[in-house]
Amino acid sequence: MDGDITLRPIRMRDQRSWREVNRRNRDWLRPWEATVPPAPPGHLAQRPTYRQMVRHLRSEATAGRMLPFVIEYQGRLAGQLTVAGVTWGSMCSAHVGYWVDQAVAGRGVMPTSVALAVDHCFRHVGLHRVEVCIRPENIPSRRVVEKLGFREEGTRPRYLHIDGAWRDHLVFALTAEEVPEGLLTRWRQARPGTPRK
Fold first, then answer.
1. For residue 136, how far is the Cα from the chain centroid?
2. Is 0.90 topped by the overall pTM?
3. Which run of H or E residues covers position 27?
4. Which of 42, 62, 109, 181 is deepest in the core (most CB within 10 A)?
5. What is the distance, to the nearest Å, from the Cα of residue 77 to the centroid of all Cα atoms in its chain?
6. What is the β-pairing status of strands 151-162 and 93-100?
7. Among 81, 91, 181, CA closest to 128
8. Using one digit for the tens of pLDDT, what is the confidence trace for 45-68?
9. CATH ID of 5-190, from 3.40.630.30, 3.30.70.660, 1.10.1370.30, 3.40.50.1370
10. So where are the chain's domains?
């Protein structure tokens, strides 16, 4: 939690709020949302229901492979952030995906949420590296990682199925050593209008 912004685990009872925010933002999110690629012959490809999605997220969280959160702004559901692909052993890394309600975009909600999640991953979960992969055309999402000081590492061609096709993504990353003071502290210090300590 930081001021008006809270990250917390996603719940079944979030369904009504989640659907309402997602429905209202359908056109705004569509160019950046993952889609299900065409299924092989004899298989059905369909998006999961909300309940199926939450069950899957919880199962992955229980297995230690994912951290599924919702973002609240001033006590209301305003988006989703998922730390996924958690890999242990000699790698200790994961990647972060997120979306936010257009009504609160530009208020620092997403950079703060990502900073909270990354600090949790580095300080409490024990990860060493966090990546964010973003379509080159997604300027608002790129601004989030740029504001937070993520390093751009290159392009992953046709990395994810987004908006009906396989899309290239830019890779941005941070390691724990790069933010010894914590990412939230760095973001607070870099934010316009924030007093420096």
1. 16
2. yes
3. helix 26-29
4. 109
5. 15
6. unpaired
7. 91
8. 677 899 999 999 999 999 999 999
9. 3.40.630.30
10. 5-190
